[in-house]
Amino acid sequence: MFDTLQDRLQSAFKNLRGKGRLSEADIDAVAREIRVALLDADVAVSVVRDFIARIKERALGAEVSQSLNPAQQVIKIVNDELIQILGGETRRIRYAKNGPTVIMLAGLQGAGKTTLAGKLGLWLKEQGKSPMLVAADLQRPNAVTQLQVVGEQAGVTVYAPQPGNGVGDPVQVATAGLAEARRTLHDVVVVDTAGRLGIDAELMQQAADIRAAVDPDEVLFVIDAMIGQDAVVTAEAFLEGVDFTGVVLTKLDGDARGGAALSVRSITGRPIMFASTGEKLTDFDAFHPDRMAGRILD
Ligand code: GDP
């Protein structure tokens, strides 16, 4: 991910090398190149517009620095602004003070929710927590089994629908799972929910109903970083339909253009909290805006 963007930015900066001082025309030229590079990487138009405006404003107002040449100065400004659009600080999970912390997952089918439930389970265990995964995705025929498989791989308990505990009704399954977690003293409950291939009113309603029933501490919107320009509509639809407290980017290992990663925070105002970088359970970590900016500019 970001290979092309990385090359394009490097070539934009290269034109500034050896310049003693940047004229307004130099700044305009580099800003134009950065703009095209971001748009070609599928970053949302509104995000690019604001980003470029800040880069230009800061580059024009930059003091002549003793320690940085003009090219380095522009790179520093771009780095700072990338960190800003990626959210600034790392946002950590807010654990409940009393009783189990409930983390609900929402997103389109194929975004990587079920895989993420396993990854998050393993990660939480490594943080010293005792998580339980709840299989409330009853839409996809294999989703429950798939969650049981990843749960087993991660060594994490999975609560799956049984006859009599709400088979066919994801809201009841989620509620029963939470009750079971309380009874068995698990301190974090991860609720996997159904997605559809596209945005759909019934799906949103189901996710909203589950949310209302389990009153989660965190709702994580899971988004495939490869979906390109569709990221904006999808994120906005989930924000309106379910609302969420944080974002998880998946498939950051892909070779698509990665614009979703750079747009979703600004579009939704919600922090990116985790990133998935592969199919293995360990291909997962907390999201660090500064490290991601560093990778893009490396
Ligand atoms: P769900 O429908 O949202 O539950 O999505 P799944 O968890 O079933 O994931 C859909 C597909 O994406 C599966 O084949 C996963 O192995 C794959 N997948 C999930 N996360 C990642 C990731 O970070 N990188 C890659 N390359 N594949 C992923």
UniProtKB/TrEMBL annotation:
EC number of the protein: 3.6.5.4
Gene behind the chain: ffh
Record's catalysed reaction(s): GTP + H2O = GDP + phosphate + H(+)
Biological process, per Gene Ontology: SRP-dependent cotranslational protein targeting to membrane
Positions with a binding annotation for GTP: 107-114, 192-196, 250-253
Top-rank taxon: Bacteria
Chief location bin: cytoplasm
Subunit relationships: Part of the signal recognition particle protein translocation system, which is composed of SRP and FtsY.
Official protein name in the record: Signal recognition particle protein
Span of the entire protein shown here: 1 to 298 of 511
Localization, UniProt: Cytoplasm
UniProt source species: Aeromicrobium endophyticum
